[in-house]
Specification:
The structure holds two protein chains of two kinds.
Chain A: H1 18-50, H2 81-114, H3 119-133, H4 137-149, E1 158-161, E2 164-167, E3 170-173, E4 175-178, H5 182-210, H6 216-234, E5 239-242, E6 245-247, E7 250-252, E8 255-257, H7 259-286, H8 289-297, H9 302-332, H10 344-355, H11 358-387
Antiparallel strand pairs in A: 1-2, 2-3, 3-8, 4-5, 6-7
Helix pairs in contact in A: 2-3, 2-7, 2-10, 3-7, 4-7, 5-6, 7-9, 8-9, 9-11, 10-11
Chain B: H1 32-41, H2 44-70, H3 78-84, H4 89-101, H5 110-126, H6 134-152, E1 154-155, E2 158-159, H7 174-199, H8 204-219, H9 222-236, H10 245-271, H11 274-282, H12 287-302, H13 304-317, H14 329-336, H15 346-374, H16 377-380
Antiparallel strand pairs in B: 1-2
Helix pairs in contact in B: 4-14, 5-6, 7-8, 7-10, 8-10, 9-10, 10-12, 10-13, 11-12, 13-15, 14-15
The chains are: A alpha+beta, B mainly alpha.
Chain lengths: 392, 381
Amino acid sequence: MSTIETPPATKTAFWNDPVKRGLALQTVLIVFVLLVVWAAWSNMSANMVARGLIFGWDYLGRPANFAIGEGLIPFAPTDSYGRAVIVGLLNTLRIAVVGIILATLLGVALGVMRLSSNPLLARLVSGYVEVVRNTPLLLQLFLWYAIINTLPGPRQALPLGPGMFLSNRGMKVPWVEWSDVLWPVIWALVAGIIGAFIASRALQRRREATGDAPPTLPIAAALIIGLPFLALAVQGFPATLTVPVLQGFNFTGGIELSPEFVALLLGLVLYTAAFIAEIVRGGIVSVYKGQWEAARALGLPAPRIMRLVILPQALRVIIPPLTSQYLNLTKNSSLAVAIGYPELVHVSNTTMNQTGRAVEVILVFALVYLTISLLTSAFMNWYNGRVAIRER
Amino acid sequence: MNRPVAPDALVHYVASEKLADLKPPASVLPPWPVALFRTYFGTPATAAITLVCLAILAWTLPPFLSWAFINATWTGTAAQCREAGGACWAFIGEKFWFSVFGLYPYELRWRPATVLVIFAVMVALSTQRLFWRRELVYAWFAVLAVMWGLMGGSVLGIPIPGLEPVATRLWGGWLVTIFLSVFGLAMAYPIGIMLALGRRSKRPIVRALSVTWIEFIRGVPLISLLFIATFIVPLFMPQGVEIDRLIRAQIAFIVFAAAYMAEVFRGGLQAIPKGQFEGADSLGLNYAQTMRFIVLPQALKITIPAQVNTFIGLFKDTTLVLIIGIFDFFTTLRSALGDSNWLGFATEAYLYAAFVYFIACYTMSRYSQRLEKDLSPERVR
């Protein structure tokens, strides 16, 4: 029997040692990146000195000297650049929130309609979806803006619904005006949401323990809607609904949405809804037919099949791309800079032109968007972890 | 079939032509008018839907058709257009070549025209799977260099003898849109692969840098990158060094597209079963060989439809250069709106632009759907 001789341990060359090679590679990489950053930074400093620019945030405190057409909080030209940024951010959030709600409603409706058994409806919707998805958003925004500008004036405004009018001055919608009692209502709403959350937890535990408990949804709804309503009732309903009415040459009452806001909202909602429609359709189609059949075999009524069997599975497919559509809508609202709705990028652009502080201004709005995106993706990861199929 | 057959049992029946289909039982198939009626008016709900759809069509289609076709002016002057009252397609006819070539010197237009022809031929070849070989990639890079050289009259700063140099600020129209999107894709492709591999790397610094790049770019709107390219990048350059404005926008696009392509490739890499890596390991392949011969060919192939979709998005996003004043197709067209002889035909111009973008994107998306079918996993493996 022969013995196996182990070869004498040779010294491996360091480029063949994976650990050392990795270290070397990463060192080279980080040195290269740092060199590029350093070169850019020192060039920038030299260039800024040469052009008489100073890096700093002092400009945020100085008066802006420009007017902002609309905003959620008042803004005067004597206010600071810092406040202008906040007004812009609030305008971005306003268009994003309203846009996301409307795009979701329209998108879900279109997605379901595209699955309709009526070929006429399905074809019409799919035609819409294809046309909108395959043309640039910027072009659509310009088109809507051009169309709104060719509309007749307020006297011949197009009636869109009860108390809603569209003219070349923008859109008039009814609005509820509150006297100074909003805070108790908001607190009541917060209390209602917390109460509903606690109640649903308790009911769920009881259902798991005993197999029987009153339904959650009506109780939660009663808490969330009922408490603020109660708060209003206690104060004797201090709200008045104002509806736009044509008087003379213009409307009185209601609130006015600017043509820029309407064009941007219309463009973003119609564009995003087309994408959401495809996501919703894909989600519903992804649930196997067997799930419907099995649920029916169990004797579940149709609404419960949808709520308990189909939707939870479809949502697992729908939610991740849906969130990225919400993010896209928020990021796409920056295209408003082209048609003049004063959101974050538009305000930043004006600030940049006036102060020459390109680096600071771009840094601010890029970081704001980055924060929104990272928060959303953090939420997404949390959600995905919760709904992911637990594999055995 | 390997069943042993007796020699004299070779007499068998083979159908030489297709037999006529059997008709379905009469009770299942109603006559077509009835089927049609049932589809559109079968239940009250269906009938209501059909009627609402027809009403919408009746309400929107006739005015649009009469504007776009019946009352439209196809050739003539702005005055004739206004008189007719319909769409003024004469305006598009007047500005068509401008929208293709932009401000490119008139007597040199044969150069961008040649570029367009070369590009069209390359695209046509690339759609055929027969030509999907490594040489096609080399050919594309060569052709892109030729296209750039023909347009500008120089390659990488070296003037080409016999070609008059044309500054990039004179480029415009379709050409710029094609350059931004195709160069963007061509350069973003290798960078995207590296970023995707870097994101899955075991080395912490490589991974951190890749993740930072991808997440930062995907987290901010494209406009901020274009702003950075326009206003901040010149500050990063040593004094006296200036990069052309179009090239800066082009770099912003490449950086942007690379991050999105990287995520597409990452999806492909994640879809490769672990056994493929283990198989490569057991063959003694190193990391580079594993990726080069085993993983990437599969990962790139299964993500082709997603790549096309990303490219469609990128193609549409090239319109954003309007905001930094670069004359792509859409910006060129919009500048034509300012012609004082032809004021007030914005809607026609936008519809023409929409039509061009739609044809391009829709063709690509249909092509990607066909590929998706052709390359579906059971066929690839």
